[in-house]
Amino acid sequence: MSQYDQAEKFGKSIIHHGPFNNRIYVMKYHQDDHPGLISQLEDLARQKKYSKIFLKVPSTFFSDIQAMGYRVEAMIPEYYQGRENMMFMSKFLRPEREIDPEAEEIKKNLDLALVKRQSASKKLPESPFECLLELSDEHTEAMAQLYKLVFPSYPFPIYDPDYLQQTMRENHRYFGIYQDGILIALASCEIYKDAQAVEMTDFATHFDYRGKGTASFLLNKMEIEMREAGMKLFYTIARAASPGMNITFSRNGYRYGGCLIQNTNISGRIESMNVWFKRA
């Protein structure tokens, strides 16, 4: 049995759930399942003893879902085709899950990122690296090895080359940086064509190359490619405890959308995540 949480369809909606993240994540909330889906999720959460239900929903459903005891943790304006807002709404089923013991440190990281936005450079210098390219099936072994090196745990099975190939065939495009013939950094674009939105995610940099701007160079390349692909909205869900990635997105013109408390099993534990967004 896989250690990872599983994605499955509930009606026309798609959920991701399991003990690894100890939560239910509604990745796609379909209007035809509203409002009955909520009670089904809560039944599943009680059965599995999950401590959080986490929804990604159009703002149309805000009032109904709020009345059922859910609260907005983050929001991205004009997410759906440049028109309707998207909200991350959550219900905490255990009191300890809704309090992050590192809240003070997280606030310091956010404040630092927001300050860095004000001193952002308008133009990225020319890349000093050997090669920055879009990755394909032939790169997945190296990709999996780098992810395994960087992340002690991750919410999806990115250590598996077969999984990476599967996501390439579905809705992911990966970009990487090579130096001296070695993959030293990579990231992915998770594309939602129906919304014309894309999540900039799965950033990883080899420890020996940290502090050299790899994430910014990757992000710049990804934004260029996604604009050409017709995306209208870029966003990310970044580790709130990691000052580096929050600074990277803030410096590159992304706006803060909110914090998802104790949301994701990453780097060996469940952590809070910050949402950042930017118009294409």
Set out the fold topology:
Blueprint: E1 6-10, E2 13-18, E3 23-28, H1 36-48, E4 52-58, H2 62-67, E5 71-80, E6 84-92, H3 103-118, E7 131-134, H4 140-150, H5 161-170, E8 172-179, E9 182-192, E10 197-205, H6 214-228, E11 233-239, H7 243-251, E12 255-266, E13 269-279
Helix pairs in contact: 3-7, 4-5
The overall pLDDT average reads 95
Largest sheet, strands/sense/barrel: 7 strands, mixed
Shape: globular
Using DSSP, what is the number of strands?
A: 13
Q: Poorly predicted ranges (pLDDT <50, ≥5 residues)?
A: none
Beta-strand percentage? Answer: 35-45%
CATH superfamily of the largest domain: Gcn5-related N-acetyltransferase (GNAT)
Order of the strands making up the biggest sheet = 7-8-9-10-11-13-12
Class per helix and strand makeup: alpha+beta
- CATH architecture term of the largest domain: 3-Layer(aba) Sandwich
The top-level CATH class of the largest domain is: Alpha Beta
Distance N terminus to C terminus? 40 Å
Number of domains: 2
As a whole number of angstroms, the C-alpha radius of gyration is 18 Å
The number of helical runs is 7
Do you know the CATH topology of the largest domain? Answer: Aminopeptidase
Helix fraction by DSSP (H/I, runs of at least 4): 25-40%
Order of helices and strands: EEEHEHEEHEHHEEEHEHEE
